[in-house]
Amino acid sequence: MTAVLLVLVGLEQPWHEASAPKPDVVTGAQGTFPATLGSTAPLTPNHVLRRTTADETVVHGLSVRATAVGVRAVNIRTGAEYWRYERGGYGEGDGDGGEDRGEDRGGDANEGYYAPTLNVSTRTVVAGFADGRLTAIDLRSGRILWHRNISEGESRRRAYPRLSGGRVIIDTPAGIRALAERTGRTLWTASRPAECDETPIETVYDFPDHLVTASASCDVLGPKHGNASAAIAPSVTESSALLLGIDDRTGEVLWRQQQGEPYDDLLRADTHTLAAVGPERRTPRPVRLLHVSRQGAPVRVTFSIHLSADVTTADVTTADGIAVTTVDPHIYDTASPTLLSAYDTGTGRLRWKLRAPTGRKYGDPVVADGRVYVVRQPNFRYADAGHGTSAELVVLDARTGRSLHGLKLTGLTVPTDVNADASLDVGGADGAVTVRWRGGRKEMLLVTG
C-alpha cells in the first residue's frame, strides 16, 4: 500500500513547475504576394471591396491586423490567410481567453489584453508587446526579421513602435531610441528632460534636411497636492507639451520646445509645417501652425476652430496644406458636425465651407492626394439602434470644396449602443479608403476605385 502511494505522489506535477512554453508560430507566406490596390487614394471610389469586423491596416493588397497573441496578414481580394505569426507562451490564459486565428468575429476577439500594437510600412510589420518586446516581420515573406526587448532592469513598459523613414522609433528607459527597420540595430538614442522620462512618445514625423520631430506631454511632479508628513506621493502639478528636433543620423537633439499646455493633437500639415491643436476645453480651440526646420519650430500663424472639432490635415507635396473641421461654430452642440470648413495651413485663412443637407451630418474626414473624403449620414436616434441605414461617401477637391464624386453606402447596421455621437468616419488605406463606426465599433468597409 505504501509503495502504491509513493508511485501516485511521484506522478503529480509540483504546483510551482510550469509546463514548457509553446514555441513561436511562423507560417511564412502562403501563395503569391498580392498586387497593391493602387498607388494613390481612389479618385472615384465606387466599389465596396470588403466588409470586416477587424481593426486592420491595409497595405499592398494585404489586411494586417493584431490578434490576441500576434499578427495575421490576409489577402484583401480573396480573404485567405497570407501569413501568421503567434508569439509562443504569450498571454495564455489571460487577455481575451485564448489564441485568435483572426476570423472576422464580433466583440473584442481580436483585441485581447496582450494583443500587440502594430506599425506597418510598405516592407515591414513591427509588433510591440505589453512586456516591452518588439518583433519585426517581413511583409512579403511573413518571416521574422528580428526581436528586441526595450525593458531594462525592473522597468517594464509596453512597446509602442513608430515607423519613420526606415527607422523604428521607440521609448526606452534611456530615452528615445531609433532602430534600423530591417535589422533592429540601434542607430541612436536621444535623451529627454527628466520630467518627461516616463511619458510615451505621441507623434513622430520626418522632415527634410535629416530632421525628425518627436512630441510628448510632460507631467511635472510636485508637492502641491501631496503631504510629505503623511508619506503621500507628489501629484501632477503642471503639464506641458514637449517637442524635440532630432538629427536623424546621429540622434543629436538640435532643439527643444515646451508649450505651457499640452496639445490635443500634433498633425503633419505640409512639407515644413506641423499643426498643433489646442486642448478641447478651450473654446475656440487654437491651432498653431509651426514652421519646422533644423533651427526650431516657431509659430508661423494661429487660427481658431470651435468646440470639439476634429482636425484632419493633408500631408501634401505643395507648401500649403489644408486643415478640415466638421463642427458648425454657430451650433453649440458638439454632436452636430454639420459644416465642413477648410483652412489653409500656410495662412490659417478659411478656404471654403460646405453645409450638410437638413437632417444629415458629417463623420470625421480624411484628406489624401488633394482630395477630402467624408461620409454624409443621417442624425441617428436611439430608436435607430440595430436597424439598417445608408449613407453617402463624398469626395471633394481639397483646395476648392468642389464635389468630385459620391457613392451611396448601403447595407449598414446602426450600432446597438447608438447615441448622438454615432458616426461613420473615413480613414486612409493603401489605394483605398476605409469607412467605419466611431468608438471602436467593429464594422468596417474597404472602398476602392
Quick gist of this model?
By secondary structure, the protein is an all-beta fold. The chain is built from 1 helix and 34 strands.
Strand segment tally = 34
Tell me, rounded to a whole number, the average pLDDT: 77
Percent of residues in beta strands:
35-45%
Gyration radius, to the nearest Å? Answer: 24 Å
Largest beta sheet: what is the strand line-up? 1-6-5-4-3
State the share of residues found in helices, binned by percent: under 10%
What general outline do the C-alpha atoms trace?
A: globular
Distance between the termini: 79 Å
Individual helix count: 1
Question: How many strands, what sense, and barrel or not for the largest sheet?
Answer: 5 strands, antiparallel
Structural class: mainly beta
Low-confidence stretches: 1-18, 93-112, 224-230, 232-236, 314-320
